[in-house]
Amino acid sequence: MRIRPASLLTRLAMPAALLMLAACAPAPIYKTSTGTVTAAPFEVAQTPEKFSGNEVVWGGRIVQVKVFADHSEIELLAYPLDSSQRPKANDSGSGRFVAVMPGYVEPLDYPAGAMMTVDGKLDGSRAGKVGEADYVFPLVSVMHSHVWTAEEMNKGRNNIRFGLGVGVGIH
After folding, report:
1. Hey, what's the signal peptide range on this chain (predicted)?
2. Bridge-partner residues for 79, per DSSP?
């Protein structure tokens, strides 16, 4: 059986191209341990006492910031994280949580709508409201946090799209 050179080249080039695309994605920003909770905020809100004191790495879209005398609180709509721990905002939300930050944080550094990832420990929950609906917010005592820039959110993502048909893209 004879192998055509173009076929061999294709077979070698495809895995190499996939490897290069995977290598472009940034590494996770926070280390996780075996004790890191993988449950989503809405699951933790159902039985917060079961998870209290455990570490989480959660992220989402900033809803609002409240500043108090000795700490600040950032409410987030949680999203699943990608392999780089960036929130995947195109997925459905997985609940809300409150990131409790020590001291004062400047609300302008945490604008509503921005994407954020936190690393911290679960510290109970608090009853509150989302609009008129009652809601239970898991509380995360934040050790580290990162607000993602638009450039960071797109880093490592290719602009290649596969599909059938005709389409027009405007950027």
Report:
1. 1-27
2. 59
Nearest CA among 76, 73, 87 for reference residue 141: 73
Which amino acid appears at position 145 of this protein? Answer: S
> Exposed, middle or buried, 137 (CB in 10 Å: 0-12/13-18/19+)?
buried
Name which of 89, 151, 140, 90 is nearest 115 in CA terms: 89
Query: In this structure, is residue 19 part of a structural domain?
Result: no
Domains: count for the chain: 1
108 lies in a domain?
Answer: yes
| Nearest residue to 60 via CA among 29, 88, 24 | 88
Specify the pairing of strand 96-102 against strand 55-67. unpaired
CA 45 to chain centre: 18
Domain residues for the domain of 67 are 41-153
132 residue type, one letter: E
Strand, helix or coil at 121? strand
- pLDDT, position 12: 53
Average pLDDT over the chain reads 84
Q: How far apart are CA 94 and CA 39, in angstroms?
A: 10
Mean pLDDT by 10 residues, the chain (171 residues): 56 50 60 83 94 95 97 97 93 93 96 97 96 96 96 72 56 51
